[in-house]
Specification:
single chain, 271 residues, mainly beta, Immunoglobulin-like, 2 domains, seven-stranded mixed sheet, six-stranded mixed sheet, 17 strands, 14% helix
Length: 271
Amino acid sequence: MKKVKGLIKSMVSLLLGGLLVTSCQSEDFSGPIQVEGKGTITLDLTAMTGFDVETKAVNEADYVNKNNYTVEIEKSTGDLVDSKLFSNWSFPYTLDLGSYTVRAYYGKNYKGVVATQAGFYVEGESSFTLDVNEDNQVISRSVSLTCMPTHAKVQATFSSDMSTYYASYYVTYKVGNTETTKVDNTDPWYLLVNKNGETVTATIHLTTKEGFVTNKDFVLTKTKNLKPNQSWTLNMSPTYEQKTGSLGISITIDETTEDHEVVVNVPSDWV
């Protein structure tokens, strides 16, 4: 009888043990694998400019290539999590749960530079939060980021016959108290303007040649409100009426022609 009771106890123990193992396996491996307090993000980065910047000094292809951009992720506390070129990031990227800001930029040397012809600064940022969902599963966020210039572009071009009538001609641009001078090239200037727009003043300086009134200086001004990523081009050519001896300049601005006539009295001995 003792042997029978022992055998029954052994069989019960084995049965309970099997149930216990089966129960543990079910609890450990059914459903998604959890990562406590973690989440992941993917990043969709778009780099763009609203103006043509193909010049000797600036190549637009450099600015639209997202692999050239530095991407930073920082916590809401301001602590930097990581910073590296977009091409060196691996997504999805795992982060602790919490609030973050992701920022991408290119042309850091020109950040905050008021006026430059060598380049400009482009930046974009977005904030996001990684939360625990109702099932306590791994969180995934897709973050979209568009990078835009912080500068506006201004440019002046002069027709080839300007030198026939004018000994000197150039344009200065002014934003606030900062003035830039454009003299010997037609490359654009990139001007730092606030996001709500600022008034840019273009001052056109003209000095007439001999035969028209030697070394006579004239100044014309035009203004335009510009926001970041906007452009403004002034195309200039001389106007001359031989009968009246009236010398002026025609200015084409944003596809609209506006004529500003500067009257110059031709000397009586000029033929």
